[in-house]
Amino acid sequence: MSASATAVASKARREKIAVGEAAAALVEHGMTVGLGTGSTAKEFVTALGRRALKIRCVATSMATAAQAESLGLAIIPLDAAGRIDLTVDGADEIGPGLALIKGGGGALLREKLVWEASARCVVIADSGKRVARLGAYPLPVEVTPFGYETTGRRIMAAVARLGLAGQATWRAHDGGLMRTDSGNLIYDLALGAIPDPPTLASLLKGLTGVVEHGLFLGLAERALIGSETGVETVLP
User: Fold this and answer.
1) What does the alpha-carbon distance between residue 49 and residue 178 come to, in Å, rounded to a whole number?
2) Alpha-carbon span 228 to 236, nearest angstrom
3) What number of other Cβ atoms are within 10 A of residue 132's Cβ?
4) What pLDDT score was predicted for residue 7?
5) Residue 5 pLDDT > 90, yes or no?
6) What is 3-127+218-226's CATH number?
7) How would you class 222 by CB atoms within 10 Å of its CB: exposed for 0-12, middle for 13-18, buried for 19 or more?
8) Delimiting residues of CATH 3.30.70.260 domain(s) in the chain
9) What percent of the chain is predicted at pLDDT more than 70?
10) CA dihedral angle for residue 80, residue 86, residue 92, residue 94, rounded to 10 degrees
11) In a 3-state reduction of DSSP, which class is residue 235?
């Protein structure tokens, strides 16, 4: 890694730690808290563990559950949680109005289930995740394994009807197709730009075989974004 790349990575890590600590400060005794997945959410879980609060937690992935339990945080199933007071999670892109692309870590279905069961959702990210328009980061689409190639062709045909073009790849892992914690597959849709996220979200959700997509729209209450001067709060 070049010196400049190392400096960028170091800056991003500092910002992730800062926003993780800021988000952990929002948690109070007695809360039920949703724990996100990914490198930034991991910093939040670490900071939350240090606070030693009496809380219940719902994890969005097996990896997050393992980390939380190693820090002494109590993990409960989503079905036992009822209404979640606060969920904190990262994002791959944060666009205008706090429209998000998520799912780079492969947990998008579980993440969206937890987000939609939450009274409040806070997204945390380093400054590099903020964009003027969504789409430079490939959009994850989770699909059922049965007929996955057919589903992929239907996704691309539907995207073309919106006048969008790009590349699509199945996410690989260890020489095969990556399986999510729910046993599904991930299709990464590289469109370059998504001019109308709500229309694309509705289109994808309506396709048989698509379990969930990584567009998180109208769900985040606020974003905590790292910067040179500290942590910036961004509202929709």
Assistant:
1) 30
2) 22
3) 8
4) 67
5) no
6) 3.40.50.1360
7) middle
8) 139-212
9) 97
10) 140
11) coil
Which of the four pLDDT bands, split at 50, 70 and 90, describes residue 38?
very high
Of 15, 43, 93, 111, which is the active-site residue?
A: 111
Start-end of CATH 3.40.50.1360 domains in the chain: 3-127+218-226
Q: Which two tokens stand for residue 105?
A: 């870590």
Residue 4 has pLDDT above 70, yes or no: no
Q: What is the pLDDT of residues 98-108, one digit of tens each?
A: 999 999 999 99
Residue type, 156: M
Rounded to whole angstroms, the Cα distance separating 170 from 144 reads 12
pTM of the predicted structure, to 2 decimals: 0.95
105 in Cβ contact with 127 (< 8 Å): no
Specify whether the CB–CB gap between 87 and 120 falls below 8 A: yes
Contact status, residue 148 vs residue 154, Cβ threshold 8 Å: no
Instruction: Look at residues 129, 139, 135, 108 and name the one whose alpha carbon lies nearest to residue 40.
Output: 129
Q: What is the CATH number of domain 139-212?
A: 3.30.70.260
Supply the DSSP string of 91-135, one letter for each residue: -SEE-GGG-EE--TTS-HHHHHHHHHTBS-EEEEE-GGGB-SSTT
pLDDT at 92 over 80: yes
Between CA 135 and CA 13 the distance in angstroms is: 23
Least confident segment among 74-78, 119-123, 154-158, 166-170: 166-170
Which position has the token pair 């199933």? Answer: 77
Annotated active-site residue 142? The verdict is no
Query: Measuring CA to CA, which residue among 22, 23, 224 is closest to residue 126?
Result: 224
